[in-house]
Amino acid sequence: MSRTNPRFRTADEQRTTSLLADSSGADSYRRQATGQFGGGFGSARTRRRFAQFVLYALLIIGAIVALFPMLWMVSASFMPTGEASQYPPHLLPSRITFTHYRELFTRLNLGRYLFNSTLIAVVVTAVSLVVNSMAGYAFAKLRFRGRDRTFRMLSLGLVLPVQVAMLPLFLLMKNLHLINTYWGVIIPGMASIFGIFLIRQYALSIPDDMLDAARIDGASELRIYWSVVVPGILPILATLAIWTFLATWNDFMWPLIVLSDEAHYTLPVALANLSGEHVQDTELMMAGSVLTVIPVIAVFLFLQRYYIQGVMAGSVKG
Fold this sequence. Notes:
The protein is an all-alpha fold. The protein has a domain at about 100-315: Orthogonal Bundle (MetI-like fold). About 75% of the residues lie in helices and about 0% in strands. The chain has helices spanning about 5-75, 100-105, 110-140, 145-155, 165-175, 180-185, 195-205, 210-215, 220-230, 235-250, 255-260, 265-275, 280-300, 305-315. The longest helix is centred in the N-terminal third of the chain and has 72 residues, at about 5-75. The N and C termini lie far apart (about 75 Å).
């Protein structure tokens, strides 16, 4: 019928023409949209790469600015006497000399001060890890009367300045006859409110079912602490160890108050006296500063992996 009737043939042709036009329009729109959004995606990718480049450039510049004083300190420690004070200052020594390091250990007895700081920092760090971890675990998982109230009272101590407690603490050490002794410096650092708070917050993530299973198996609380809790809080223990060692090693005020015998001086106190006696000998003071910084960097590098795990623990476990 379509062949004999022109009207029907015309309608079919019009329908076909319309479909072809729609298809051509859709293809044209698709090509236009693809080209437009393709360029948009390329532009977004370019902007993202440029933003990353700017970010990395700023980080590198910040790292150079932060590391430059330390690098100059190391360089100045190897300079001959007086070269670090010249103007314009030298970035590198004209000739490398170890005279200042040799003088620190021979004439100024820095080895004794290094031993004092190492002994105090190691003992304080080791004992505080045990005490703070036990207390933090008890506040997190053990049930006893007044637990939450006691913890809230301890937490209030975080807002008090350390200097407020120095006078009563000094009088307490005096009554215990611990003035001018190593224990007078060690005992106040054996426990800290910050350490207890840090361990307690981390220990809250330990499943109660694991602890109950250990109790059902007949394990004592001490065995549960040592075999179950300690392996689970190793990252935060490493973080606390770095903080405690660093704070004890760099502590100046409390050893200065408690210690009066020069043989018991720590490195910061000894370097303060050194800067007063040899204020013009910049190279000698830089050598002493290098020896003070090296142990802290060594401890951080040794515990770096656990420190990062402890810092990231909140985002991973929370």
